[in-house]
Amino acid sequence: DTIVLRNIPAGRAGARLAQKLYRRGEYAAAAETYLKAAKGAPRDIALNFKFNAAVSLFKAGEFVAAKALFNDLSRQADESEIEQIERALGLAAYNSAQALDPNQPENLATRSELLHEASEAFRRASRSSAQDEDARNNLAIALDEYRAAESDAHIAALMEKYQAQNPGQLAAEMLSKQRQILKDLAAANTN
Predict the structure, then answer these.
(1) pTM
(2) CA–CA dist 121, 143 (Å, integer)
């Protein structure tokens, strides 16, 4: 039996329906239901429903949508909730990056940006709870992968830019730029 999502009640009644969907593994429908239930709820309850919607999206594998919702929640959250939201934001950004094929050059820059966003979210989460070893481990993993992804994206951009140039032209351009740097450095030292 699939629940048809038409007239979803606002507030707790809608949230109970969303919980039922979540328990049945219908995560995308649960997310939609939580979001509709949030529309008629007081602010603090609506934020909880939105958090549950983001978790449901994450469970559905919709990492980009979950990341967007967690990002929105992080701007609205109280200090007591920020660590949990930032950690969830980091996980959503990290999983969004992992979902991209690193062997496709067009994905490299986006993957690097997502891993950077994950690193920053994990950094903010670890600041909120300095004793949390999981937060520090998540940060370390995301930073390592971000550095590698950033390097891969940079190399891909250079390869695209210079692929038509022959090695002699490329070497001449590099030497010319090095000479200009040395010339500028000498001028800077005399000032």
Answers:
(1) 0.75
(2) 11
